[in-house]
## 1
Amino acid sequence: MFNGFEGLVKSLYSSFYPDIRISPASGKVLTLTQEQLQKLKGLPGIKNYALIVEEKALLQNGDYQSVVYLKGVDENYRYVSGVEEHIVKGDYNTGTGESPLLILGAGVENAIGVQADRNLFALKIYLPKKSASELLDPLNDISVDTINTSAAFVIQQDFDNKYAITNIDFVKRMLGLTTDQYGGVEIALKDPALAEDIKPDLQKMLGSNYKVQTRYEQNQGLYSVMSLERWVIYAILSLILVVAAFNMIGALTMLVLEKEKDISVLHALGGDRNFIQKIFLSEGLLLAFIGGGLGMLTALLLAWLQINFKLIPLQGGSFLIDYFPVTLKARDFLLVAATVLVIAFLASWLPSRKAALNEFNLRSE
C-alpha cells in the first residue's frame, strides 16, 4: 500500500515538476543567450525544454481575490510537463504576449469565483516589477493588467491551490525583464532514469551561476519523508515479528524437554552435539519457511485482488482515486523473507543450543 501511494504521489508530482530544472544559483532571474540555448538543445539525452518565469501575483475578480504563483511558459511547456493531460475544464491555451490567457488550478478557480472555461469576465492581475525598490511605491513598482481564463487543471492540492499558468512574454513584459532573462528552464529527458548522468554535463556547460536539479532534488523533502515512512512501518512490523518469535522459542524449548530421551538415543547412536543442535535449528527454520511462505502467498493474493477488483475503498469523495493503491515490488518480498529467516534463526538458536548442551542419559528413573 505504501508503494502504491508513493507511486501515485510521484506520478502526480512528475506531471508538474520536470526531469531536470535549471534555475539561478541566487535570486530569481537568470540570463540565457541563444548560443547557450542551442548548446542545451544539442546535449545528448535532452528531449525538449521549456523557458519559464515564475512570480507571485494577485488575481482579483471583483470582491474575490487570491495570491497565486503565476508561471509564464513558452510553447514547449506542454511537451515538458503533464499539465495538459490534467485539464478538466476548457482547452490548454496560454494565449500570446498581447492577448494572454490563464490556466488556473482548480483551487485558485474556486478562490476567485470564476468558471475558467467560460471566460466571461477579465480578471485584474497585479505583479511587482523586478526593478522595484526596497521602498515599494504602489504607483510605479506594481504592474497591473487584465487577463482572461481558458482552462482549469486538477493535479494535486499543492499545485491546484497555488498555480496559474500563462504566456511567458506577458509575464516578462509585466516584470520588466529583457529578452535573454528568464526564471528558469524545465527539461524533459529521453530517459528520465539518466537524470543523474546528464546533470553534471549541464552544470559544466552552464557554470556555477546556475543551479541544476533533478526531480528528486526539487522534491527532496517529499521523497525523504515517503522513504522514511516505509522504513518506520518495516521497523514496526519487524518488532511484531520479534514478539511473535517468543512463541517459537517457547514451542522449541518445550520440544527439547519432551524429546530428552530421543536426544539421548541419538547421542548414543553417534550423534554429536552439533548434529543435535542442527536438528532443532532446522525445525525452527522449517517453521519460518512454512509461516513466511504462506504469509507472502496470502499477501500476494490479497494484493492481486486489490489491484484487479479494488476490494478496499477509500472513504470520502475528495481523492483522485476511490480505492487504496497497491504496488508489488520483488525487493519487498526479498526483504521480508530475509527478515523472517534472520528472526527465526535467532529464535531457534537458544532452544537448539540448550538441546545440544543437555547431559545425555538413557537410564530410566
## 2
Amino acid sequence: MEDVIRNSFQRGISYAAWFDDMEQMVAEKRTSGENQSESLIHYTSLNYHRAKRVYQSFQLNELQLESLGTINCRWNFLVIAEHWCGDVAQNLPAIAAFIETNQLGTLKIVPRDEHKELMNLFLTNGAAAIPKLIVLDEYYSVKAVWGARPKEAQKILLDWKQNPGERTHEDFVKELHSWYAHNKSQELIHELIEMLKSIEKS
C-alpha cells in the first residue's frame, strides 16, 4: 500500500501545473481521463471557470486562522482528481489555497484514471468518488482521508438518491452547485481544520 502511495505522490503534480493542464485542455477542447465525450469536455470548460473563481476568492476568517495557529506539523497531501469532475472544481482549488496560504505542507495531484490501484485503496462506499484527499506523513503512511465532498454536500447527494421524487440528475447538480456557491468553501475549511487538529492529537 505504501509503495503505491509513494509512487503516486512522486508522480503527482502541483496545483499550478494541474490548473495549467486544465487551461490547455479547454483550449484544445478535450478533457482528462479515458472518456472524451462531448459532455465531459463541456464540464471541463465549465469547471475551469469554477476552479478559477474558487481559488481567487479563497480566504480564512479570524476564527479559522486562530484554529490553524495551533497546528504545527507539516504533511504531504495527495489528491486524486479529474478535470471533468464538478466536485473537484469546487473543492480542489480551496484545498490548494488552504495548504499554500498556511504553509501546511506539499500538495500533489494525480488523475484518477491513471492511478486506479491508488483509487481502489480509497473508495467511497465502493465507488471511485473524487476528489479524494489523503494526508501522509514523511514516510507516506496515511494519517487521514477526506472526500469526496463536504458532509453537507454529501447529504444533498444521498437525499437525491434516496428520495429523488421528480428531481432529475440535472436538478440535483443545480442544487449541489448552488450549495457550493452559497457556502463558499466554509464547510470544507472547517472539516480540513478539524481533520488536521485530530491528526496532531493522535
